[in-house]
Amino acid sequence: MKVKSIGLIGIGMVAGVAASFQFSAMAQKPGSAPLPLDELRQLTDVFGLIKTDYVEPVEDRKLLSEAITGMVASLDPHSVYLDKKALREMQESMQGRFVGLGIEVAMEEGYVKIVTPIEDSPAFRAGIKAGDLITRIDSTPIKGLSLDEAIKKMRGEPKSKVVLTIARKGDDMPWIVPLVREEIRVQSVKARMVEPGYGWLRISQFQEQTVDDMVKKVNALYAQDPKLKGLVLDLRNDPGGLLPGAIGVSAAFLPHDKPIVSTAGQRRDSNEVFYGRREFYASRSGADPLAKLPAALKNVPVIVLVNTGSASASEIVAGALQDYKRAIIMGTQTFGKGSVQTLRPLTKDTAVKLTTARYFTPNGRSIQAKGIVPDIMVDESAEGDGLNSLRVREADLEKHLSDGSGKDSVDPGKARRDELEEDQRAQALAKSRKPLEFGSKDDFQLAQALNQFKGLPVKLSKVEPVHDKEADKAKDKAAVKPAPDVKPPELNKGDKK
């Protein structure tokens, strides 16, 4: 079974995984090719036929809105037209709050599959687990609906009710779950001392306040132990978010002014290098939030935990720290979302979220459809990679963007999934267990990170990934270079766009 598409319920849009957004109000590129008049004439002809011949009248606004929606959605899984409601909900989600059920979902064989319930959400409290299938929403069967249509049916106002019918592997009968939608606030940054001398810093999503929140949490850790011996930066299941947050988190661990990530696209302003300095991660006014961090953070040993749910902005952080050999990356291959989505306003209430560029690590490695391969491969549990092995990746999505090399994207985890997929699927779906709580005493990957710090044996994945040899060569180069076609001297005059 191949998962065909993925979305995040609650943020109010079909997002695949949360994108690393840039915001722009740029107009159409000057000097672009002339409009294809014959094809546009066909479009107006079809519009006219529907108006005159369809079985019942259809509003002009609906036809035009659906035409725009279909045109943008045909490009790739992350480009989308945002109407008034979707635009408002997306803006709210970037502030770390949204109204919904609190579940990450994917469409599989015509049903909506639960990928991850969000901690302390209505779905989590009701006992919904990863791997469950939603077969009905209220009285409407899911079979035959698109993921977008299913998501819209699960949206609603705070305190409104919805009833899900859930099928679970091993249960003879489906069960009915009444839920009440609520505003869910995602805590972007968590931290605690997991053992004397070792801290755990988790970023669940990159939001507007992530850099400031990270600074507070790191200072709290150093207040408890000024001689911290190791720090685990946990980016597992972090779907991404805002680009400045990823730059700021990376810059916290790296020397000042290092290139963090570069972009390459069709427009001139889509080719840019982002550096680890204040104007790239902080607001235009105010002091540099990273100036408040303890100097020891620049040298403390760091292990970054990632998995298949780590995407976009979290891959930017992992890739930068890996390229500079500043941290050991541990876990499983990341999602592979290395594309930039830019918000282009159309009216005051509508916009298009359009893919405008690809991301590259400081060494020029493409993230798109490849992801970040950990330095040390470690499964989710001692028994195997569990539910993580069932997650969809960017390369599995229909119409996904290539890596830009002109060659088929190398999938470093393919051999691993081919060999273990069926065993892991049966094993994971057959188990009835509560979702893994990251940072808990039962967190196997965190335990392996602590073993690595202490020089103790680490239990590795059962199958080594197939490495991209060209990427390995690039990673080993001493000199750090920007992505192809990027011209740093010309693009880095003045403030960032």
Automatic annotation (TrEMBL):
Q: What segments bear the compositional bias annotation Basic and acidic residues?
A: 464-479, 487-497
Molecular function terms from GO: endopeptidase activity; serine-type peptidase activity
What keywords were assigned to this record? Hydrolase, Protease, Serine protease
Share an example GO biological-process annotation for this protein. signal transduction
- InterPro entries in the record: ClpP/crotonase-like_dom_sf (IPR029045), CtpA/B_N (IPR055210), PDZ (IPR001478), PDZ_sf (IPR036034), Peptidase_S41A (IPR004447), Tail-specific_protease (IPR005151)
Residues in domain PDZ?
87-169
User: What Pfam families does UniProt report for this protein, alphabetically?
Assistant: CtpB_N-like, PDZ_2, Peptidase_S41
Q: Which GO terms describe its cellular component?
A: outer membrane-bounded periplasmic space
| Region (Disordered) residue spans | 398-421, 464-497
Q: Its family?
A: Belongs to the peptidase S41A family.
**Protein name, UniProt field:** S41 family peptidase
